C-alpha cells in the first residue's frame, strides 16, 4: 500500500443495494487532463526553484545523507515515514535528481528506503486509524510562497518558486484523484471479478493486474486498499487474492513518479524507471512463492494476536448461503425497530472485527514483502543503475548527467597523488565545455521558429549550468588537497589548476553568451546575410582549432611540447587578426548598405564574443606553460 492509506473501512460505509450512480462526462475528462498538466507544471517549477535555491548547502546535506546505500535507504525510510506517502517522497527524489542534487545511484537507495517507509504508514493507520493529508497544506503553502516571489533577493524568489511548484504538484495530484472515475465509491463495478476467483494461480495474476490498473487510474494505492477490503468484506475474494491486489498496487503506485519524470531530464526518467524496476522485480519473486508466502504472513498475523485474516471472506460467504436476509442488510444502517436488528448488528460487529484482522494481515504482507525485497536488492544498487541506464539511454551520449569521473568527496590520504586525479578531471571538464562551441555554431544556423532551436538553446543552458557545478566541485576538491601536506611545488601546481578551471568556466560562459546574442538578434527581428554567416563560421573554426590545441595540452600538461604551445599562440594571434579584419570590414559594409546597422551590431557582438573565447583559451595555455609544464621538456 504505497502512498497514503485510508483507515480500515467500516462495514457501514458502502451499500450493496444503494450504489452511487457514476457518471463521467467529457468535461470531467478535460479536467483530468488539466489536473495532469498542473501536476507536471508543478514538478517543473519545483525542480527549477529547488535547483536555483539549493546552491551547495542542500547538495552537501543530501550528499552526506546518501553517502552510501545504507544511509540513503535510511533517508528514504525517514522521509516517507514523516510525510506518510511514498508517492510524495519518490516524486521528491525525482525532482532532486532532475535538479542535479542527487545522483542516480543515491536515488536508488532512497527509493528502496521509501518502499519500506510506506509500511510504517500502513501500520500507523491500521493500528490508530489516522493519516496526514499533504493536500491540506497546499493553500497555506501558496500563501507563504507569494510574498517570497516579490522579494528582492533572488534566493528568496527561488524558495518561493519551489513552494509554489510543490503546492501545484500536490494540488494536481489531488485533483487527478478527484476527476478520475470514482471507482472507490462504486465497488459493485468489480462484482464481475467473482467469476475469476477459482482459477488458482491464474486468479492471482488476474487480481494483481487489477490492483495495478486500478492504482494507476485512481493515483492512490490507499483507495485500492479500501476497494480490496470492501471486496473481501462482501465475500467476493479471499485473503490470497486480497494480497494479489495489494501486490499489484505496489507496481501501480510507480505511475506517480513516472508522470513526474516526464517533464524532467534523462536522470529523472531513469530514477522513475528504477522505482518501477524495484517493485516489478520484487513482485516477480513473490509470485514464485506466492501461496507459501501468504501462509507465512497469515501465521505472523495470528502470532501478533490479530486473528486469522482468511476468516472474513469465509464468514461472509457462510452468511450469504445460510441467511440471505442478514447478508443483504449487512452493509446497511438499520432502524432499531427492524425485526432482526440484533442479529444483523451482531453480524456487522463481527465483520468489523474481521476487517481489522484483514487490514493488519495486509499490512504484515506489505511489510514482510518490502523488508525481504530491501534485504536482497540493496546489494544490487550498482546493477540497478546499469540496468536503468541501458533501459533509458540518453539521446546524446554527451547529455549524460553531471557526475565527476575521477575525483570524489572521500578521504584524501595522499594529497600529491590526488592532484593527478584532478588533472584528469580537468581534462574531462575541458572536453565537455568544448562541445558547447559546436552547439553554439549549430544554433547560429538553426531556424529560430523550430523546436530544434529551442532544444539546442536548452542544451546550451544546461551545459553551462553543469560547467558551473563542475567548476565548484573541482575547486572544492583542489582546496581540500591544498589543506594537506604539500610541497611548495604542489601548492603552485594547485594554484595553476584553479586558474585553469576558472578560465574553462569562462569559455562555457562565452558559448552561452553566443546563444544570448542570437536571442537578442531574433527578438529584434534582424537577419544576417550569407557573408556574415560565412565570417562567423570561419571565426568559429579558428576558435574550435584553438580549443582542440588546448585540450591536447590539458591531457598531459606536465609534458606539454614547445611546438604545440607555439601553435596555440599562433592560433590566438590569428583569431585577433581576423577579428580586426572583420571589424574594419563591418564599417565599410554598413557604409555601403550591404546590411543594416543593427545587423552589424549583433554580428560584431558575436565576433567579439568568439575572440574573447580565444583569450580564455590562451590563458589556459599560459598556465600550462608557466606553472604545470616541466621545464626540462
What does the model show?
With 633 residues, the protein is mostly helical. 74% of the residues lie in helices and 0% in strands. The chain has 22 helices and no strands. Helix 7 packs across helix 9 (239-252). The longest helix is centred in the N-terminal third of the chain and has 40 residues, at 26-65. The radius of gyration is 32 Å and the shape is elongated. The N and C termini lie far apart (67 Å).
Assembly state: single chain
Count of strand segments: 0
Shape: elongated
Number of helices: 22
Strand proportion, as a percent range, falls in under 5%
Q: Quick one: biggest sheet?
A: none
Q: Output the helix-strand order.
A: HHHHHHHHHHHHHHHHHHHHHH
Question: Which stretches of 5+ consecutive residues score pLDDT under 50?
Answer: 1-22, 409-414
- Tell me, rounded to a whole number, the average pLDDT: 76
The structure class reads mainly alpha
Helical amount: over 70%
Distance between the ends? 67 Å
Report Rg. 32 Å
Secondary structure elements and pairings:
Blueprint: H1 26-65, H2 69-83, H3 86-98, H4 104-128, H5 138-149, H6 154-179, H7 201-218, H8 221-233, H9 239-252, H10 255-261, H11 266-288, H12 290-303, H13 311-322, H14 324-328, H15 341-377, H16 381-391, H17 415-444, H18 451-482, H19 488-523, H20 530-555, H21 562-591, H22 597-628
Helix pairs in contact: 1-3, 1-6, 2-3, 2-4, 3-4, 3-10, 3-11, 4-11, 4-15, 4-16, 5-6, 7-8, 7-9, 8-9, 9-11, 9-15, 10-11, 11-16, 12-15, 13-15, 17-18, 17-19, 17-20, 18-19, 19-22, 20-21, 20-22, 21-22
Amino acid at each position: 500500500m504505497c502512498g497514503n492509506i485510508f483507515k480500515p473501512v467500516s462495514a457501514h460505509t458502502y451499500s450493496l443495494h444503494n450504489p452511487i450512480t457514476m457518471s463521467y462526462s467529457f468535461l470531467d475528462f478535460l479536467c483530468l487532463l488539466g489536473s495532469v498538466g498542473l501536476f507536471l507544471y508543478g514538478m517543473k517549477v519545483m525542480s527549477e526553484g529547488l535547483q536555483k535555491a539549493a546552491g551547495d548547502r542542500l547538495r552537501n546535506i543530501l550528499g552526506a545523507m546518501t553517502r552510501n546505500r545504507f544511509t540513503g535507504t535510511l533517508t528514504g525510510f525517514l522521509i516517507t515515514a514523516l510525510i506518510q506517502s511514498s508517492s510524495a517522497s519518490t516524486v521528491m527524489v525525482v525532482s532532486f535528481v532532475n535538479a542535479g542534487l542527487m545522483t542516480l545511484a543515491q536515488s536508488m537507495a532512497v527509493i528502496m528506503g521509501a518502499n519500506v517507509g510506506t509500511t510504517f504508514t500502513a501500520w500507523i493507520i491500521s493500528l490508530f486509524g489516522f493519516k496526514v493529508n499533504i493536500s491540506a497544506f497546499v493553500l497555506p503553502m501558496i500563501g507563504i510562497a507569494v510574498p517570497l516571489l516579490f522579494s528582492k533577493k533572488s534566493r528568496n524568489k527561488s524558495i518561493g518558486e519551489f513552494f509554489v511548484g510543490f503546492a501545484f504538484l500536490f494540488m494536481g495530484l489531488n485533483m487527478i484523484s478527484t476527476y478520475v472515475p470514482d471507482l472507490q465509491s462504486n465497488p459493485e463495478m468489480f462484482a464481475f471479478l467473482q467469476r475469476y476467483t477459482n482459477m488458482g494461480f491464474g486468479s492471482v495474476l488476474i487480481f494483481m493486474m487489477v490492483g495495478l490498473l486500478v492504482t494507476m487510474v485512481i493515483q492512490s494505492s490507499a483507495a485500492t486498499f479500501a476497494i480490496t477490503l470492501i471486496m473481501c468484506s462482501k465475500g467476493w475474494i479471499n485473503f490470497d487474492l486480497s494480497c494479489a491486489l495489494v501486490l499489484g498496487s505496489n507496481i501501480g503506485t510507480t505511475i506517480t513518479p513516472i508522470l513526474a519524470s516526464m517533464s524532467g531530464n534523462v536522470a529523472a526518467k531513469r530514477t522513475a524507471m528504477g522505482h518501477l524496476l524495484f517493485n516489478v522485480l520484487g513482485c516477480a519473486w513473490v509470485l514464485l512463492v506466492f501461496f507459501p508466502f501468504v501462509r507465512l504472513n497469515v501465521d505472523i498475523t495470528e502470532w501478533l494476536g490479530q486473528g486469522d485474516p482468511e476468516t472474513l471472506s469465509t464468514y461472509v460467504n457462510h452468511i450469504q448461503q445460510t441467511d440471505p436476509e442478514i447478508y443483504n442488510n449487512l452493509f446497511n444502517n438499520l432502524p432499531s425497530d427492524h425485526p432482526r436488528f440484533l442479529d444483523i448488528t451482531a453480524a456487522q460487529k463481527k465483520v468489523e472485527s474481521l476487517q481489522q484482522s484483514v487490514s493488519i494481515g495486509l499490512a504484515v504482507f506489505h511489510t514482510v514483502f518490502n523488508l525481504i525485497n530491501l534485504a536482497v536488492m540493496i546489494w544490487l544498487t550498482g546493477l540497478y543503475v546499469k540496468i536503468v541506464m541501458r533501459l533509458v539511454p540518453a539521446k546524446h551520449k554527451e547529455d549524460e548527467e553531471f557526475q565527476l569521473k575521477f575525483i570524489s568527496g572521500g578521504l584524501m590520504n595522499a594529497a600529491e597523488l590526488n592532484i593527478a586525479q584532478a588533472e584528469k578531471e580537468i581534462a574531462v571538464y575541458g572536453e565537455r565545455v568544448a562541445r558547447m562551441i559546436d552547439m553554439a555554431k549549430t544554433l547560429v544556423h538553426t531556424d529560430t521558429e523550430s523546436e530544434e532551436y529551442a532544444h539546442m538553446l536548452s542544451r546550451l543552458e544546461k551545459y553551462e549550468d553543469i560547467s558551473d557545478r563542475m567548476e565548484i566541485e573541482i575547486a572544492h576538491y583542489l582546496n581540500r588537497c591544498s589543506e594537506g601536506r604539500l610541497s611548495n611545488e604542489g601548492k603552485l601546481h594547485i594554484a595553476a589548476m584553479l586558474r585553469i578551471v576558472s578560465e574553462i568556466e569562462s569559455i562555457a560562459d562565452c558559448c552561452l553568451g553566443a546563444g544570448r546574442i542570437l536571442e537578442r538578434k531574433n527578438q529584434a527581428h534582424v537577419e544576417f546575410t550569407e557573408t556574415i554567416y560565412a565570417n562567423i563560421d570561419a571565426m568559429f573554426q579558428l576558435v574550435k582549432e584553438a580549443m582542440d590545441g588546448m585540450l591536447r595540452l590539458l591531457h598531459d600538461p606536465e609534458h606539454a611540447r614547445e611546438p604545440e604551445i607555439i601553435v596555440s599562440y599562433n592560433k590566438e594571434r590569428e583569431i585577433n587578426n581576423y577579428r580586426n579584419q572583420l571589424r574594419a570590414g563591418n564599417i565599410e559594409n554598413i557604409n555601403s548598405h550591404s546590411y543594416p546597422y543593427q545587423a552589424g551590431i549583433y554580428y560584431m557582438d558575436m565576433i567579439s564574443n568568439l575572440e574573447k573565447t580565444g583569450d580564455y583559451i590562451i590563458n589556459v595555455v599560459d598556465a600550462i606553460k608557466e606553472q604545470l609544464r616541466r621545464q626540462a621538456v
